[in-house]
Amino acid sequence: SKLSSIFDPFVRVKSAMSGKGYGLGLAITRKVVLAHGGQVDARNGEPEGLIITLRIPRWG
To answer: What is this structure's pTM?
Structure first.
């Protein structure tokens, strides 16, 4: 799906709010979260917006 592609390097979503950048922030986030045994997910908010969920195992 298009939504899952936001975690791919260099993917940028065209919108009036998007500024300059190289589309690396979410790709780096995914890499770090997965390296720590976690999960990252994105979904559309209702009625609008984007919800990104990070799940990282408890340390202890």
So the answer is: 0.73
